[in-house]
């Protein structure tokens, strides 16, 4: 270090060279460059070269940053100024000039590009880039394309998907090593190097001189900036600082790579040239700065634990620490030692406990090799050192991109790959230390996947650089740092070490990049073959795998619940799958043919050796330690999978690769232990270990793991079972499952190892396991397609599945090259063969369904396989679900009505190698067990279930199906005496054993058992543990009593077998070894005294089956042999009627098969049936059993009671709902007959859903309707043009809001406010098109005081609700609909409303006067406001709620803030909003008529009362009341206009008639009389009609006008002139002609004039259309106020029907004439007078403002209903345009872009960039665009999100793939297409404001979206 410091001191203030070239030079860079280029072009260019070097020396001197960085921190401070940046800029400028040789740099770039011969795309991208992968075109599974190349190529019909790059990648277009040429895009298909001209020498000459210096300069910077992190905390900020400074330089290099092939080859030369490197970097010259730089480099090397070869002598001696030097000799532990010192994070490896783990080391093939792999690095070129620094700086993105951009150059690719391999060990060390290991992993894989996916390259590196050795060694080293001692089996003396799953290395998957590279290179055949041939590598690899053997050991907690549930099992399963299983699948994929037998033998051999070592290391003999289980046995699984491959594909003889019996016995123990533990876990015996143990059991069988875990385990057990003694195997199984003691004929028994409550489920587990073991054929003879089909059927039977979940659930070979690739043809063809597609349906509730596949009927009929289902279910409930679906199918198809049993399915034939497996079915031990269980079930012993019986019968049936071919009926009846249980059955064939009668059985029972009483014989003792013994003849039994008897015991049997086999190998075959009784099994002292009893049985399996049949059917003699009636049955055994059914069917099927197999059986069955069987004796029920039975019965009764109650409750609720719906408002009641003398006054009655009382709403205790108030801008979204608006998908398409309803109304209001008096303007229009308040109800009512207490209780409720109680939100207590206010019901009687509806015969003039008087009476209201009642308080509070529902900007339109006119306007507009919205919900017209669907749920009536009450507080000055202008002629017009200088009032013809209607009605006292209502409507209709005429006159041209004027004038004096539109029109025209309205028709006006000629029909239609909106709203209002139904009609007669319904049409009107709208007119005063008065107002306005006057008159009458934007068919068009679009506010590309589906605005979701006053952009937009409701499409997720006020929810997607599925977050990346039905549902919910009711999952967004 001293030397380095000195150098730094010297390097500090070094005056000689100026920092920049002399001023003259700097001014004229171009001239200098040109001069130098000329000098270099001369043949003798030495002088030029020296001059250039001198210049470069000055320009690119690393001195400046060096002086700055020498003193560390001050430097950084100093560097803050403009200094360093400027100098570097200058240096870069120089480089550019010199490269261009005096010309312009840009022209130079273009010139070089012209010589680009590259046919590869090679575009490099970083994480999160969107790329494509096409499996049809890919050769390597890692193939990827950039979007541009993908869209330019032709991939129609291919299996491709879009994906978001996780680690980054590069485009493979043009690279035929990775993809098929047919998939290349247009750009990369054509180019071949032939037609590219040769590069002129002088073009790149300068580059060859300049670039070496430039790259050296960069390396010096990197050396300089690196400071060894102190105390192991890498100072990431320092590193990042250096990298930021170097940003421009690296970018410059990156730009050079993009110039194309010509420049790349120059760069390759520079980077790989060893001479250049040596000259520049050796540090031997005089230059002090270069020396110092070299020293820094050496220090960096050393601190990385790497030696520089020359310095080996210096460092090598001190390298191993004292503690590890001895190990160094043994092999690769030496390097681990050096690890220890250099890497302080590894120091804990050196403590004592670790020492044990490190003792047993395997020697590697040679210590020198590893040493060199791990520790030695020698850099010979710039490329090598650049990569070194790239690693040192933890793979900065810019550097990675530069290095990858060079890859299209072939020469570079090879050099770089070799360099990468050379640094592999160093990469691993850096990765382990890194704090950002995730990012770093991604960057490493980003590079390695480009290098190793190419088979040719991988092969070359394997041969030349020992790639495989390096990888395996590096992996081994990596895992060595986290080994611990294994606690499996023999805790004290175990020598086995396993990885510790709690270590960060495993928990964070840090090993992932290395393993993924290894898997990648093993996918290449040439590389894999080398691996399989290299014995040394295989040994090392097995050694690596054994680190995972037995990891993450679970020990069963027996007392306390475990305190801390560790989640290490995730890490363990991931590690086994990635580090062991996937390389295994990779190797297996190359062992497919006979020629590869040798490879399999190698693997199997080393695998067995490793297993033997493992058994020795854990001191395993024959008994596994109790209460522990590990799910990780990778060595077993390697062995199993290679065996399977050997038999299936390589035609190897199985026995040649099997070990001896003893080894097989050991091999089967641990996999069997796992199967037993699975049953224990499901029986809740491991509950104290917490949930994680269930998690492990599920993961073990889960679809991604099962074929690397449970399948090999079961296969291995099948192999063992086929080769071991069957009796031994069966007894092992029952012993492992701890149910040996249960297998006794006694009714009571003692189980020493299992609690009674677990016995039943463990027995079920054991039998189920046997069934699976014996019937599964996955590795025993099924072809790949059959396997795929079986897997698919199993998954579909559990549930209907979507296409993607099926792909996910079907275990495929994890190695992508293995053949079954998801989406391959076999998958699709099998799917279409077994399943039907159910297209997505829409339920009215709006729940979104996906497209599903459901099994075809014939699959249920023939292929449903319960065994496969049980094997593949992660959750037990799925088995039940499959059975339920099966039952439903049988009922539906009429095949079986009852509850069926799982069907018995025929199996694929066994592969001959495994025939031995069937011996299990023909061994006496199994037959004894089956016999015992059948007997116990028949005798109703406890702890046996239907499931047990089902499995017993299944096993019997399997045995019959797989019996030995020929059976001699006369079998030798007695075997030799040496077998202790021969007295049970004569032989081992199930067929003959079935008919064998067993008379007496001796059992060991507790003394308390009932059998003891009947015991007549002397008890005999036996030293064995438990169980059963029997004899055929009593006299034999007597003889055996003389003390020679041995009781059959499974455990003893098994032990004996094991000993036999062990002894056979040691020549003492004849010696009988007494089995040692293991202390584990007998719990001393706990068991009560056992005595022996002898039971009389006298049954055979056949007779038991027949009795079972009687028992199951509940009838005596129910079984009758079918062949006695129909002999045919025996000839054609396949009878469909036996395929499906329950236990009875199963028994019949078995008996039939038994009879078929042997004549004897047939005869015996007939005999048994002839004897009339006595009834089964009633069993004696013990008290305990009685108790449990009673309990069951009581439970059943309770259940029935509960069902009854629930049903009753449901029906009550239903009827209540119906009544609640009907009685919600007084008008819905049938009007009473008024003929009675004294009408009874009946008030409307309401039910309170909280307290349940019924009664009227009163002043002191008002009732209210549950309502939801929400602000809505839906109305404002109506548009006037016909074609729908589309979502913009190009820059040209834009959406402007000018043509929306809201915009038009805004313009109109502001125009009026400009010229007229403000208060008058606010009465002339309605607001609420945007942000209007919509009120909806569910129709339920409650007392307002009940509601208050309900809200109180909600407030105290701690449960997380989806709504905010503080904002007054709640859910209706009855129907749970969302609501936020209560609307008081106005107390009123029904009679009153009937009286008001009577027609009166008063004249219209009288009515007009009455209306005026009533309006003038201030507050004349039945309820006096002055006295504050509860009702009026509530009305005020609900009014406040209504106001607060919308934002202030949507309420205040007045110029003077807070003026009462404003409130007045707001209130009648609320009524208008609700009427208009109801009209839209009815489809925009009233043709459908009838009470609307919303009828029962309408709250308009109550709303009107509340509004009217408040409106009457503001009395309009009678002067200004528009009513007078409508109904009276004003005389003193002129004087009025002269004396007032202020703004005039709005002319009556500019008033909005519907607004006038609401004002008039709400000003009247409520309830309103029908005749007053009709009177108001008639008067307003005259105004409306006049407006229509005026508008019509403005629309047509001058000639038409004059023609009509004359035509009408002629008819003026006819009788009904006032009701003829022609006359009226001509009068209007003549009146308005007095003003300037028609004058200034400039040229621009002509555009508006419609060119069509007006016929009388078209004029009539225009007038009707103009009036219709008013008539519709008025009819709706009448319907709500007076409860009259709306008539339905055709669209063309809507006008006449509505006008007669409103009473505008005189009753005597004849219908035969063509209908004329003018006939509805009823003028209150002479028409011509009032019209001229109205026209005068307009004329006086148009005097000054003709333009505006005209604009205000023309109103568009036909508005289209509101719609969401139309979306394109294919989602990709949206995605490609928006996902890279920049936000208009912050001009960045948003991380989560979204687009509004109402108006098309592009927004940043959650973007902090566009946040305003703590509101993020989406929330802000939802307030501006939808008054709090926003519908956004999230571009990157294809999902729609709804914002409603302060809540939001994910709605789902309207784009589905070809299989009818959503693809949320575009994870699958399949093409998506619009689903029109879903989009309609979305639009419907938007228009009907039902988002809150239909979508259930709402959450608060806290303004953060």
Structural write-up:
The chain is of the alpha+beta class and 1905 residues long. Strands 23-22-24-25-26-29 form a 6-stranded antiparallel β-sheet. It has a 3-stranded antiparallel β-sheet with strand order 3-2-4. A hairpin with a 6-residue loop joins strand 15 and strand 16. It is flat.
Keywords:
single chain; 1905 residues; 3-stranded antiparallel β-sheet; 79 helices
Unreliable stretches (pLDDT < 50, length at least 5) are 1-27, 63-84, 310-369, 815-823, 966-982, 1013-1047, 1066-1087, 1175-1181, 1220-1241, 1389-1396, 1419-1426, 1532-1540, ...
Strand percent estimate: 5-15%
- Kindly name the structural category: alpha+beta
Number of helical stretches of at least 4 residues = 79
Strand order in the largest sheet: 23-22-24-25-26-29
Shape designation: flat
Largest sheet: 6 strands, antiparallel
Q: What fraction, in percent, of the residue positions are helical?
A: 40-55%
What is the CA-atom radius of gyration, in angstroms?
A: 46 Å
Q: Averaged pLDDT, please? A: 78
End-to-end Cα distance: 56 Å
Number of strands: 29
Strand and helix layout:
Layout: H1 2-11, H2 23-27, H3 29-41, H4 46-59, H5 63-70, H6 73-78, H7 83-100, H8 105-113, E1 124-125, E2 130-134, E3 145-146, H9 147-152, E4 160-164, E5 169-170, H10 186-190, H11 205-225, H12 236-257, H13 261-272, H14 274-281, H15 288-303, H16 312-316, H17 325-330, H18 333-342, H19 352-359, H20 367-375, H21 382-392, H22 397-405, H23 410-422, H24 424-433, H25 437-452, H26 455-465, H27 467-480, E6 483-485, E7 497-499, H28 504-507, H29 512-522, H30 525-533, H31 535-546, E8 554-555, H32 568-588, H33 597-617, E9 628-629, H34 634-648, H35 661-682, H36 691-701, H37 710-723, H38 726-736, H39 756-775, H40 784-798, H41 803-809, H42 825-834, E10 835-838, E11 852-855, H43 857-863, H44 866-872, H45 877-893, H46 924-938, H47 946-961, H48 990-993, E12 998-1006, H49 1011-1014, E13 1028-1031, H50 1034-1040, H51 1050-1065, E14 1090-1099, H52 1101-1113, H53 1128-1131, H54 1143-1157, H55 1159-1170, H56 1183-1222, E15 1246-1247, E16 1254-1255, E17 1263-1272, H57 1301-1315, H58 1318-1324, E18 1332-1343, H59 1344-1356, E19 1370-1371, E20 1378-1379, E21 1381-1384, ...
Helix pairs in contact: 1-15, 3-4, 3-7, 4-11, 7-8, 7-11, 7-12, 11-12, 11-13, 11-21, 12-22, 24-25, 24-27, 25-29, 27-31, 29-32, 31-33, 32-34, 33-34, 34-37, 35-37, 35-39, 38-51, 39-47, 40-42, 40-44, 46-47, 46-52, 47-54, 52-54, 54-55, 61-68, 62-64, 63-64, 63-67, 63-72, 67-68, 68-70, 68-72, 69-70
């Amino acid at each position: 270090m001293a030397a380095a410091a000195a150098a730094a001191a010297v390097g500090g203030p070094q005056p000689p060279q100026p920092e920049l070239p002399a001023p003259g030079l700097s001014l004229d860079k171009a001239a200098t460059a040109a001069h130098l280029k000329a000098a270099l072009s001369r043949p003798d260019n030495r002088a030029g070269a020296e001059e250039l070097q001198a210049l470069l020396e000055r320009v690119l001197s690393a001195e400046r940053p060096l002086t700055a960085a020498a003193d560390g921190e001050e430097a950084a401070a100093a560097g803050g100024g403009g200094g360093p940046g400027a100098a570097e800029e200058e240096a870069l400028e120089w480089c550019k000039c010199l490269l261009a040789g005096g010309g312009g740099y840009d022209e130079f770039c273009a010139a070089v590009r012209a010589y680009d011969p590259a046919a590869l795309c090679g575009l490099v991208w970083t994480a999160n880039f969107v790329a494509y992968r096409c499996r049809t075109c890919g050769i390597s599974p890692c193939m990827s394309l950039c979007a541009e190349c993908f869209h330019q190529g032709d991939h129609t019909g291919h299996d491709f998907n879009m994906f978001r790059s996780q680690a980054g990648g590069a485009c493979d277009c043009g690279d035929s090593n990775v993809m098929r040429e047919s998939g290349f895009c247009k750009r990369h298909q054509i180019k071949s190097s032939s037609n590219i001209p040769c590069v002129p020498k002088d073009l790149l000459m300068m580059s060859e001189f300049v670039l070496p210096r430039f790259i050296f300069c960069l390396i010096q910077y990197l050396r300089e900036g690196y400071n060894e992190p102190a105390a192991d905390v890498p100072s990431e900020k320092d590193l990042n600082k250096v990298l930021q400074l170097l940003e421009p330089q690296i970018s410059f290099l990156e730009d050079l790579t993009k110039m194309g092939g010509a420049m790349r080859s120059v760069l390759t030369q520079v980077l790989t040239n060893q001479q250049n490197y040596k000259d520049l970097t050796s540090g031997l010259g005089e230059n002090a700065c270069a020396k110092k730089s070299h020293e820094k480099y050496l220090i960096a090397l050393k601190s990385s634990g790497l030696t520089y070869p020359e310095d080996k002598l210096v460092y090598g001696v001190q390298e191993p620490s004292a503690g590890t030097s001895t190990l160094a000799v043994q092999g690769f532990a030496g390097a681990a030692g050096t690890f220890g010192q250099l890497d302080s994070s590894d120091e804990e490896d050196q403590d004592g406990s670790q020492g044990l783990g490190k003792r047993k080391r395997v020697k590697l093939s040679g210590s020198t090799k590893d040493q060199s792999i791990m520790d030695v690095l020698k850099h010979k070129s710039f490329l090598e050192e650049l990569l070194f620094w790239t690693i040192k700086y933890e793979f900065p993105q810019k550097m990675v991109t530069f290095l990858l951009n060079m890859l299209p150059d072939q020469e570079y690719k090879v050099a770089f790959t070799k360099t990468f391999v050379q640094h592999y060990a160093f990469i691993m060390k850096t990765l382990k230390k890194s704090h950002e290991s995730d990012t770093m992993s991604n960057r490493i894989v980003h590079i390695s996947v480009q290098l190793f996916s190419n088979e040719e390259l991988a092969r070359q590196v394997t041969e030349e650089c020992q790639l495989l050795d390096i990888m395996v060694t590096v992996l081994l080293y990596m895992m060595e740092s986290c080994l611990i001692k294994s606690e499996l089996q023999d805790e004290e003396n175990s020598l086995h070490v396993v990885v510790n799953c709690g270590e960060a290395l495993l928990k964070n998957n840090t090993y992932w990049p290395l393993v993924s590279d290894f898997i990648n290179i093993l996918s290449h055949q040439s590389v894999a073959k080398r691996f399989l041939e290299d014995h040394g590598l295989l040994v090392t690899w097995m050694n690596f795998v054994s680190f995972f053997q037995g990891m993450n050991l679970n020990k069963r907690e027996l007392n306390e619940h475990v305190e801390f549930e560790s989640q290490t099992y995730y890490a363990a399963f991931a590690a086994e799958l990635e580090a062991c299983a996937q390389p295994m699948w990779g190797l297996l994929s190359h062992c497919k043919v006979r020629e590869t037998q040798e490879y399999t033998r190698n693997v199997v051999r080393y695998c067995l050796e490793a297993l033997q070592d493992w058994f020795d290391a854990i001191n395993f003999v024959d008994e596994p330690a109790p209460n522990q289980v590990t799910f990780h046995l990778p060595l077993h699984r390697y062995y199993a999978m290679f065996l399977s491959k050997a038999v299936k594909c390589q035609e190897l003889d199985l026995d040649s690769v099997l070990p001896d019996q003893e080894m097989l016995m050991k091999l089967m123990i641990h996999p069997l232990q796992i199967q037993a533990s699975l049953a224990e876990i499901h029986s809740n015996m491991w509950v104290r270990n917490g949930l994680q143990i269930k998690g492990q059991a599920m993961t073990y069988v889960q679809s991604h793991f099962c074929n690397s875990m449970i399948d090999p385990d079961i296969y291995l057990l099948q192999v063992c079972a086929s080769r071991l003694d069957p009796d031994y195997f069966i007894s092992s199984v029952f012993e492992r499952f701890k149910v040996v003691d249960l297998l006794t004929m006694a009714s009571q028994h003692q189980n020493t190892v299992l609690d009674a409550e677990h016995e039943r489920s463990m027995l079920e587990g054991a039998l189920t396991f046997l069934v699976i073991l014996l019937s599964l054929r996955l590795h025993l003879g099924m072809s790949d397609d059959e396997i795929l089909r079986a897997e698919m059927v199993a998954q579909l039977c559990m549930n209907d599945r979507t296409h993607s979940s099926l792909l996910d659930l079907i275990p495929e070979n994890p190695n992508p090259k293995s053949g079954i690739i998801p989406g391959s043809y076999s998958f699709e063809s099998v799917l279409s063969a077994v399943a039907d597609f159910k297209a997505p349906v829409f339920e009215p509730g709006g729940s979104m369904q996906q497209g599903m596949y459901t099994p075809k009927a014939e699959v249920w009929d023939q292929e449903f396989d319960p065994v496969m289902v049980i094997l593949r279910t992660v959750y037990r409930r799925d088995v039940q679900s499959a059975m339920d679906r099966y039952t439903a199918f049988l009922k539906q198809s009429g095949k079986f009505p009852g509850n069926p049993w799982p069907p018995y399915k025929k199996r694929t034939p066994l592969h001959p190698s495994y025939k031995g497996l069937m011996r299990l079915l023909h061994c006496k031990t199994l037959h004894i067990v089956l016999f015992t269980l059948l007997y116990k079930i028949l005798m109703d012993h406890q702890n046996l279930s239907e499931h047990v019986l089902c499995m017993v019968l299944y096993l019997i049936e399997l045995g019959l199906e797989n019996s030995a071919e020929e059976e001699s009926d006369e079998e030798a009846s007695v075997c030799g005496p040496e077998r202790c249980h021969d007295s049970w059955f004569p032989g081992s064939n199930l067929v003959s054993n079935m008919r064998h009668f067993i008379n007496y059985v001796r059992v060991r029972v507790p003394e308390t058992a009932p059998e003891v009483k009947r015991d007549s014989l002397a008890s005999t003792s036996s030293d064995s543990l438990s169980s059963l013994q029997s004899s055929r003849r009593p006299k034999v039994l007597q003889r055996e009593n003389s003390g020679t008897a041995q009781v059959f015991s499974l455990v003893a049997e098994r032990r004996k077998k094991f000993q036999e086999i062990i002894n056979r190998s040691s020549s003492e075959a004849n010696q009988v070894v007494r089995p040692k009784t293991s202390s584990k099994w007998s719990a001393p002292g706990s068991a009560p005294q056992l005595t022996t009893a002898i039971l009389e049985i006298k049954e055979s399996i056949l007779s038991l089956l027949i009795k079972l049949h009687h028992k199951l059917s509940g009838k005596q003699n129910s079984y009758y042999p079918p062949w006695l009636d129909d002999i045919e049955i025996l000839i054609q055994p396949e009878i469909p009627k036996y395929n499906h059914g329950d236990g009875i069917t199963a028994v019949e099927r078995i008996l039939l098969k038994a009879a078929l197999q042997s004549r004897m059986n047939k005869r015996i069955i007939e005999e048994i049936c002839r004897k009339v069987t006595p009834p089964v004796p009633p069993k004696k029920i013990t008290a305990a059993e009685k108790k449990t039975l009673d309990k069951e019965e009581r439970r059943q009764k309770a259940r029935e009671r509960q069902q009854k109650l629930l049903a009753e409750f449901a029906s009550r609720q239903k009827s209540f709902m119906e009544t609640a719906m009907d009685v919600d408002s007084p008008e819905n009641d049938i009007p009473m007959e008024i003929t009675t003398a004294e009408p009874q006054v009946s008030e409307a009655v309401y039910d309170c859903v909280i307290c349940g009382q019924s009664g009227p709403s009163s002043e002191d205790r008002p009732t209210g309707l549950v309502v939801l108030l929400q602000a809505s801008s839906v109305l404002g979204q109506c548009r006037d043009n016909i074609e729908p608006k589309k979502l913009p998908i190009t820059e040209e398409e834009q959406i402007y809001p000018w043509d929306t309803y809201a915009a038009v109304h805004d313009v109109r209001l502001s125009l009026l406010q400009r010229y007229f008096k403000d208060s008058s303007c606010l009465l002339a229009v309605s607001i609420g098109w945007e942000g209007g308040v919509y009120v909806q109800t569910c129709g339920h009512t409650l007392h307002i005081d009940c509601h208050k207490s309900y809200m109180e209780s909600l407030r105290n409720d701690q449960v997380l609700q989806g709504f905010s109680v503080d904002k007054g939100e709640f859910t209706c207590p009855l129907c749970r609909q969302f609501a936020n206010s209560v609307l008081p019901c106005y107390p009123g009687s029904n009679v009153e409303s009937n009286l008001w509806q009577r027609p009166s015969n008063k004249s219209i003039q009288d009515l007009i006067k009455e209306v005026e008087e009533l309006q003038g009476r201030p507050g004349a209201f039945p309820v006096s406001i002055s006295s504050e009642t509860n009702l009026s308080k509530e009305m005020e509070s609900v009014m406040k709620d209504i106001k607060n529902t919308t934002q202030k900007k949507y309420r205040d339109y007045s110029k003077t803030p807070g003026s009462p006119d404003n409130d007045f306007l707001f209130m009648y507009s609320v009524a208008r909003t609700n009427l208009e919205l109801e009209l839209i919900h009815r489809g925009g017209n009233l043709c459908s008529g009838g009470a609307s669907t919303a009828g029962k749920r309408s709250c308009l009536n109550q709303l009107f009362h509340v509004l009217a009450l408040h409106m009457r507080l503001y009395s309009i000055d009678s002067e200004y009341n528009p009513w007078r202008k409508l109904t009276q002629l004003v005389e003193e017009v002129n004087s009025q206009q002269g004396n007032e200088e202020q703004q005039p009032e709005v002319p009556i013809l500019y008033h909005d008639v519907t607004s006038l209607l609401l004002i008039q009605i709400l000003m009247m006292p409520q309830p309103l009389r029908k005749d007053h209502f009709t009177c108001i409507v008639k008067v307003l209709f005259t105004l409306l009609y006049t407006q229509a005429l005026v508008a019509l006159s403005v629309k047509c041209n001058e000639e038409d006008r004059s023609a009509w004027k004359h035509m009408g004038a002629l008819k003026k004096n006819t009788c009904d002139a006032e009701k003829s539109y022609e006359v009226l029109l001509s009068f209007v025209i003549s009146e308005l002609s007095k003003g300037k309205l028609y004058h200034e028709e400039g040229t621009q006006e002509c555009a508006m004039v419609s060119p069509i000629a007006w016929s009388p029909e078209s004029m009539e239609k225009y007038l009707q259309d103009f009036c219709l909106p008013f008539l519709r709203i008025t009819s709706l209002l009448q319907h709500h106020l007076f409860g009259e139904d709306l008539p339905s009609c055709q669209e063309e007669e809507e006008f006449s029907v509505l006008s007669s319904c409103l009473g505008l049409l005189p009753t005597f009107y004849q219908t035969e004439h063509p209908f004329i709208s003018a006939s509805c007119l009823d003028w209150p005063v002479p028409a011509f007078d009032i019209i001229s008065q109205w026209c005068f107002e307009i004329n006086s306005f148009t005097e000054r403002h003709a333009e505006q006057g005209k604009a205000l008159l023309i109103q568009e009458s036909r508005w289209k209903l509101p719609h969401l934007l139309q979306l394109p068919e294919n989602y990709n068009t949206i995605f490609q345009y928006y996902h890279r679009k920049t936000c208009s506010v912050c001009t960045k590309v948003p991380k989560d872009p979204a687009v509004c589906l109402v108006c098309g605005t592009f927004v940043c979701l959650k973007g902090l960039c566009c946040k305003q006053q703590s509101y993020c952009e989406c929330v802000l937009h939802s307030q501006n665009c939808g008054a709090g409701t926003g519908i956004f499409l999230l571009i990157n997720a294809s999902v729609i999100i709804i914002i409603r006020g302060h809540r939001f929810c994910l709605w789902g997607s309207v784009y589905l793939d070809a299989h009818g599925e959503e693809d949320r977050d575009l994870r699958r990346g399949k093409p998506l297409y619009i689903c029109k039905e879903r989009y309609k549902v979305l639009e419907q919910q938007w228009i009907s404001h039902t988002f809150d009711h239909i979508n259930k999952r709402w959450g608060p967004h806290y303004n953060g979206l």
